[in-house]
Amino acid sequence: MIILAIETSCDETAVAVTRNGREVLSSEIFSQADMHALYGGVVPEIASRNHVATIGKLTELALKNAGITKRDIDAIAVTYAPGLIGALLVGVNFAKGLALALDVPLIPVHHIRGHIAANYIAFPELEPPFLCLIVSGGSSLISDVRSYTDICIIGRSRDDAAGECFDKAARVLGLGYPGGSALDQLAVSGDEAKFSLPRPVIDGHPYDMSFSGLKTAVVNIVHNSGQKDEPLDKASLAASFAVAVSDILVPRVMSAAKQFNHNKIAIAGGVAANSRIRADLVNAAKEHNMTLYIPPLNLCGDNAAMIGCQGYYEYLAGRRAAMDLNAFATMDVDCDCVRI
Fold first, then answer.
1. Residue 132: CA atoms inside 13 Å, Cβ hemisphere, count?
2. For residues 16 and 307, is the Cβ–Cβ distance under 8 A?
């Protein structure tokens, strides 16, 4: 089954062609990062306008590189939640037009389910059930993946997402936007024990997380240093920050895996590209004799291939969207709000 997939939840316009949920025939991404760097973060209106300007040409390129025509498409999959509402609406409406014109099914895909599905592309042998840590700019979740379409949230951030925390820390350190990769590189030469940073615990909710206090601590250290006109060891602060985030995430993941009887663990989302978190998860998985799946860097960030992959399994589960499909800025990964 050939699916044309569309992803426009934030500032990347992405179109891909996938086959049978595991094979990627083409995957095209237009990044707007340089446009938003000037403002230190994503400007929703700019993101939406660029999606409109780019999505048609990118679709033609994806079809060309896949070696197919529109007549070969069996279904259209599209991210409909969560994300920037204006950006999502561009993709949703474009997908509805395509599905209507080609007379093929329209498959609604939750963005976070797509991130989980990136692992199916990277690891053809991976099948549910397994535990998945999803860490991105908008979400920090520990999920019990019971089947391809049955996903239960075990733990979540009570405030900021880990990715948002990374972006804020990078910005206050003068690393620009997006700053996750630059912060990762800076941390390599730093002393991770130099700065004492918080690792919050949510009483009575062992798998829930909090990152706002950590973010505030980093901001305060930088501001206090500037106010006192004292030199700041940015590399060590970056390293201390990265290990603090990892200390919040990794032990919770391993504990949840044990409690829910999983010996397979996957990680997904943009923050999955962080080298410290990846290394700590590898070591923890070895220590507890668990199998760990970490997608390659090109599948950690937003892309449409993961939407096409998850779309295939949503299709098999009988999910279809009517032409009144709407976009949703917020929606839990275990919520099903689409009329079939």
1. 33
2. yes
Which pLDDT tens digit goes with each residue over 98-125?
Answer: 999 999 999 999 999 999 999 999 999 9
**pTM confidence score:** 0.93
In whole angstroms, give the CA distance from residue 128 to residue 262: 10
Alpha helices in 141-296 (DSSP H): 162-172, 180-187, 212-227, 234-259, 275-287
Name the residue with tokens 């929703």: 44
Alpha carbon distance 298, 301 (integer Å): 6
Q: Are 340 and 319 in contact (CB under 8 A)?
A: yes
Measuring CA to CA, which residue among 271, 315, 333, 325 is closest to residue 107?
315
Asked whether the beta carbons of 267 and 135 are under 8 A apart, the reply is yes
Helices (H), ranges, the chain: 33-37, 44-66, 85-102, 111-122, 162-172, 180-187, 212-227, 234-259, 275-287, 305-316
Q: SS3 of 39, please?
A: coil
Question: For the residues of 92-105, what is the DSSP string, one character each?
Answer: HHHHHHHHHHHT--
CA angle (274 as vertex; 162, 5 as ends), nearest 5? 80
pLDDT in tens, 241-291: 999 999 999 999 999 999 999 999 999 998 999 999 999 999 999 999 999
End-to-end alpha carbon distance in the chain? 20
